[in-house]
Design a protein that fits this description.
The protein has 8 helices and 21 strands. By secondary structure, it is an alpha+beta fold. The strands form 5 sheets. Strands 13, 14, 15, 17, 18 and 19 form a 6-stranded antiparallel sheet that branches. Strands 2-3-1-7-6 form a 5-stranded mixed sheet, with helices on one face. A hairpin with a 2-residue loop joins strand 13 and strand 14.
């Protein structure tokens, strides 16, 4: 596995390639850079054990720690590999900070599929032309970010028709991408780079659906690109309370499948409210995650985002619940 970083790594395992520092992680390497036996000890780890906790917004102003299992992460790894055809020849971008759940795709889709990962710090991502230059120097093949970052690059005119010559896929998610802005990028890179809109909450291992954008999506410029179809092994319900809605009607998107998280860390009350038994399955306890997103399912099998059932908004991909602002003012 190659890890391309944008700052000099430790000197013990460093090589230079195209003026970028590359750190090679061998099978016996640990975080201290010393030989300490096998990197992974898995005998006592099961698929239901927690692999990581990702903190996200809470309506009281206190973040919720979404607990994700090893099994969920392995299913996500397989989905990413199959959907985007990842191979050890790929170089993925990491423009997402570690505390943001988009980084789950960056690190696990790359490292668990043997790809390389080009890591860019905040000093690079806030400079549009510098970021484009570094991505090109690293010969990145797959990009993933929120639409806001891509809009930043096009607004600053850092992206041209010849930019990103090695990118074969640009993936975006975490917030809506206005079609008028998306078309600017599509017109510059289509024909050599595929664009994918993805969707998924932190509580369900980052991504649960994807949709490839084509020229037909710009025949109507209103609205957003579809969320697409659910990933394999995923299932969805559109509910009004506990009642299923009809095709074409808006309902709360509820997710089922192996990537649904284990709940919120040390928070039984909020876990019970969001991770609930499937009301349509009377035969056994089947946990669904209630996303709070209002979605329609068309005759074409595509999910489309309509709005929220609460006061949550998104900025740069981050959840902001308006009650948090109220609580801060009251405090």
């Amino acid at each position: 596995v190659g890890l391309i970083v944008d700052a000099p790594p430790p000197a013990h395992m460093t090589a230079t390639c195209d003026e970028l520092q590359i750190e090679v992680l061998g099978p016996e390497w640990n975080v201290d850079g010393e030989d300490a036996g096998p990197l992974h000890e898995t005998a006592d780890v099961t698929g239901s054990d927690p692999a990581y906790i990702m903190f996200t917004s809470g309506s009281t102003g206190f973040p919720k720690g979404a607990v994700i299992s090893h099994g969920a992460l392995l299913n996500f790894r397989s989905w990413a590999s199959e959907t985007f055809g990842l191979t050890p020849d790929d170089v993925l971008t990491n423009v997402n900070p570690l505390y943001f759940d988009n980084s789950v795709f960056d690190f696990y889709a790359a490292l668990l599929n043997g790809c390389s990962l080009a890591v860019f710090g905040r000093d690079v991502t806030r400079e549009a032309r510098t970021l484009v230059q570094r991505v090109e120097e690293a010969k990145c093949t797959v990009w993933f970010s929120v639409p806001s970052l891509l809009m930043f690059l096009t607004t600053m005119r850092a992206v041209k028709g010849t930019s990103f010559p090695t990118l074969r896929a640009i993936i975006f998610g975490g917030e809506g991408y206005p079609k008028s802005e998306m078309k600017k990028l599509f017109d510059m890179v289509s024909g050599r780079t595929r664009l994918f809109n993805v969707y998924g909450p932190t509580e369900c291992t980052c991504i649960c659906s994807s949709y490839e954008v084509t020229k037909h999506d710009f025949e109507e410029m209103e609205g957003l690109a579809p969320l697409g179809r659910m990933a394999p092994n995923f299932s969805s319900l559109l509910l009004d309370g506990d009642r299923p809605v009809n095709v074409g009607e808006a309902g709360e998107l509820c997710l089922l499948g192996p990537q649904v998280g284990l709940g919120y860390y040390n928070d039984d009350e909020r876990s019970a409210a969001a991770f609930t038994p499937n009301p349509l399955n009377p035969n056994w306890t089947e946990i669904i995650y209630r996303t709070g997103d209002l979605v329609t399912l068309g005759e074409d099998g595509l999910h489309r985002f309509v709005g929220r059932k609460d006061n949550q908004i998104k900025h740069m991909g981050y959840r902001i619940e308006l009650e948090e602002i109220e609580n801060a003012l009251y405090a």
